Amino acid sequence: MSKFNLKERTLVIIKPDAFQRGLLGEILSRFEHKGLKIVGLKMVHLSDVLLDEHYDVHKNKPFFNELKRFMKTSPCVVLCLEGLEAVSVVRLICGPTASRTAPPGTIRGDFSMSGQATVVHASDSIENAKREINLFFAASELFEYSKCESEFIYGEGERE
C-alpha cells in the first residue's frame, strides 16, 4: 500500500470568461494530460446563495458584488479532480491569481490578463477543497473508478 494519498480531491471552476472564450476543452485537457482524474464534472448557473457561501471570505470586500455579477454572466463548469497532491498540483497548473504576471505555460499565464477574469478558480487548501466540493457536488455526482494509465502516471511507490 502506498504512503501517498492518491485520492486527494480539489475543486475547479471554469469561469464565465473561459466558457465564453471557448477555452473549456483546452483547460480540461491540461488537467487530464497532467494525469489528474476527473471524478465530477457539470455545467451550472451559479446562484446568489451558492456564490455567497463559496466566496464568504470576500463578502465584506469592495469587489464582492462585482465578482458575483461576473460569475452569473454565463454558465460555469465545475469539476472535481483527484490525484496525488491534487490541490497543490492544480494550483501550479492554474498559476497565480495575478494573471498578468502568471508564468507562461500556466492556464492564467496563457489565457488571462485580468485580476478578476482569471479563467479558473482552484481550491487553495485541502480543507477548502473539501468544503467547496461539498458545496458544488452531491455525493452521488462524484465517481469512483480506476484508470488503467495510473501505473504510467505514478511511480511504483506512489501507487495505491
Can you walk me through this structure?
- It is a single chain.
- The protein is an alpha+beta fold and 160 residues long.
- It has helices spanning 16-20, 24-34, 48-54, 64-71, 86-94, 107-111, 126-136, 150-153, and strands at residues 9-14, 37-44, 76-82, 120-122.
- The chain has a single domain, classed as 2-Layer Sandwich (Alpha-Beta Plaits).
- It has eight helices and four strands.
- The chain has a four-stranded antiparallel β-sheet with strand order 2-3-1-4.
- The chain is globular.
- The model has no long low-confidence stretch (mean pLDDT 92).
Layout: helices, strands, pairs:
Elements: E1 9-14, H1 16-20, H2 24-34, E2 37-44, H3 48-54, H4 64-71, E3 76-82, H5 86-94, H6 107-111, E4 120-122, H7 126-136, H8 150-153
Antiparallel strand pairs: 1-3, 1-4, 2-3
Short précis:
By secondary structure, the protein is an alpha+beta fold. It has helices spanning 16-20, 24-34, 48-54, 64-71, 86-94, 107-111, 126-136, 150-153; strands spanning 9-14, 37-44, 76-82, 120-122.
